[in-house]
Amino acid sequence: MREIFKGGVTPQQKLVAVNNKFGNVNVKNQQGTSRIIYDSIEITAGKTFYRFFEDSTTRAFPLTNTGSEGNKLGVGDTMVVNQILFSIWQRNNTSGVWDLFGNLLTFNKNALGLIDFDIANNKVIKKLSLTEGLRDFNKDTTGLNNVIDLETQIVIPPLLQYTLDLQLPAEAFTPQPNQTAYLVCQLIGTGGIIAPRTTF
After folding, report:
1. How far apart are CA 14 and CA 12, in angstroms?
2. How far apart are the first and last CA of the chain?
3. Which residue ranges form the domains of the chain, and what is each CATH number?
4. Nearest-CA neighbor of 159 among 73, 71, 81, 52?
5. CA distance 149 to 3
6. Contact present, 138 and 84 (Cβ < 8 Å)
7. Whole-model pTM?
8. What's the pLDDT tens digit per position in 124-134?
9. HEC string of the chain?
10. Do 64 and 40 meet the contact criterion of CB atoms below 8 Å apart?
11. In DSSP terms, which residues pair with 128 in a beta bridge?
């Protein structure tokens, strides 16, 4: 079972507190929401370093859902990142059909990878091991769900650029014949969006 919040502070309270420091005092009046922000990068032979979100404006749906805002949240939008998930998708080059191959940590070698996460050129996650996503190391993880639960709630304020770097010890995956493979990074958490009339 997953914890709802850690350290006695809910994600919503952390969201409000951090944004208050930036002068975004109206965040507490925004509409609360659940958010998943994701970006995809093609897996190529020998590639071991991936920087997600930095140039996501050059990719279109379904490779990313960041839209024209790219690697920053829009005016009035904010988010607490509670979890990170990496998955591998393949697209058939003939039919165009997409298929979920599995989780990055399906291959144990990838558990030796490291994550760095930056917001406005400030490092907020430094060399976090992907072993955190394995069930043997994470009390909140099952064999079918290799999501990485963060021990610290990371707040992304509006209009500040963010990037996530992933360093792997070897190439993530060898695409199957006639397939193009993509490594997908999902940031999962609680957010706030502008509510001009009311909140629910």
Report:
1. 5
2. 26
3. 36-191 (2.60.120)
4. 73
5. 9
6. no
7. 0.85
8. 999 999 987 77
9. CCCCCECCECHHHHHHHHHHHCCCHHHHHCEEEEEEEEEEEECCCCCCEEEECCCHHHCCCCCECCHHHCCCECCCCEEEEEEEEEEEEEEECCCCCEEEEEEHHHCHHHHHCEEEEEECCEEEEEEEEHHHHCCCCCCCCECCECCEEEEEEEEECECCCEEEEEECCCCCCCCCCCEEEEEEEEEEEEEEECCCCCCC
10. yes
11. 115
29-72 pLDDT per residue, tens: 678 889 999 999 999 999 999 999 999 999 999 999 999 999 99
Determine the distance from the C-alpha atom of residue 80 to the mean position of all C-alpha atoms in its chain, rounded to a whole number.
11
Query: For residue 45, which amino acid is it?
Result: A
- What is the identity of the amino acid at 81? V
